[in-house]
Specification:
Elements lengths: L2 E7 L4 H19 L7 E7 L5 E2 L2 E2 H15 L1
Parallel strand pairs: 1-2
Antiparallel strand pairs: 3-4
């Protein structure tokens, strides 16, 4: 039984998680032949203050992106 844990920054809505889980399950099914009913996908939601890219938290990166968008508008 394949079990896949996905670290996921909090924020995306349920529809996005549903779509991602379906694609992940389909890919595992295709690669292994495991029945879809035996493939488990678990989303582990991480606060954006605890999710880093390089030196910046995702919270900070989102703030910088919003500031840049506002300065060009």
């Amino acid at each position: 039984m394949p079990m896949i844990d996905v670290l996921w920054a909090k924020g995306p809505n349920q529809q996005k998680k549903d779509a991602a889980a379906a694609k992940i399950a389909d890919a595992i099914h295709e690669a292994t032949g495991s029945p879809l009913t035996s493939i488990w996908v678990n989303f582990i939601e991480v606060e954006t203050d605890n999710f880093y890219v390089g030196h910046d938290s995702l919270t900070e990166l989102r703030r910088k992106r919003a500031a840049a968008a506002n300065s060009t508008a």
